[in-house]
């Protein structure tokens, strides 16, 4: 917790500028974004201030909403509506949203929940819309760094259902719901920002 009583994560301050550099041009023409797993709410207030054209809709499981509200109420930005309760296994907001963002969520969900996450994104993201997913990921069945290997072990020790997700598995989940990986940005401390796009024609791209 911060000294002001709001939830605080130092990682949000550390990664927000690199993430913004990726998502600002990506979401330049978006108007209505859903953030899945807003956590402390820090990312939301920073990104909403940087992109005033964009209504940034926060969401998370119910236990995190008071902390998110505290950040939103302090900043009082006009493009930050009250947070929504969203458990990926439950009822999703109706949408459509023309952009979706989520940071550091896939590795704290089970693999089955990540599959449900992509199903939900495919259902509420407008055709042609972008889904930016930030975090650490494996590639080709391998860790991309020793620090990611240690992080994965720590996650599994906390809960065996948690763990780093492999890009190949994410592609499989995404393809079922008209989502294709169009960009893979290297980020600091061995993270990535994966950019998915819902196929504008409403069908999965050939070869995916």
Automatic annotation (TrEMBL):
<dbReference type="InterPro" id="IPR010342">
    <property type="entry name" value="DUF938"/>
</dbReference>
<protein>
    <recommendedName>
        <fullName>S-adenosylmethionine-dependent methyltransferase</fullName>
    </recommendedName>
</protein>
<dbReference type="Pfam" id="PF06080">
    <property type="entry name" value="DUF938"/>
</dbReference>
<dbReference type="InterPro" id="IPR029063">
    <property type="entry name" value="SAM-dependent_MTases_sf"/>
</dbReference>
């Amino acid at each position: 917790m911060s000294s002001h009583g709001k939830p605080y994560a130092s990682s949000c301050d550390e990664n927000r500028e690199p993430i913004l550099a990726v998502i600002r041009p990506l979401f330049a023409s978006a108007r209505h974004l859903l953030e899945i797993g807003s956590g402390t709410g820090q990312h939301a207030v920073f990104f909403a201030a940087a992109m005033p054209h964009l209504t940034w809709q926060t969401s998370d499981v119910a236990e995190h909403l008071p902390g998110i509200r505290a950040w939103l109420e302090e900043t009082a930005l006009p493009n930050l509506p009250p947070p929504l309760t969203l458990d990926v296994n439950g009822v999703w907001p109706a949408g459509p949203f023309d952009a979706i963002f989520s940071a550091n969520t896939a590795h704290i969900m089970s693999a089955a929940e990540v599959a449900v996450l992509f199903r939900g994104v495919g259902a509420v993201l407008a055709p042609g819309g972008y889904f930016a997913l930030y975090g650490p990921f494996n590639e080709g069945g391998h860790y991309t760094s020793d620090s990611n290997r240690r992080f994965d072990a720590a996650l599994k020790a906390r809960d065996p259902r948690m763990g780093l997700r492999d890009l190949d598995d994410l592609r499989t989940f995404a393809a079922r719901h008209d989502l294709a990986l169009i960009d893979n940005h290297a980020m600091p401390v061995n993270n990535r920002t994966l950019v998915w796009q819902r196929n504008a024609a409403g069908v999965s791209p050939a070869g995916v």
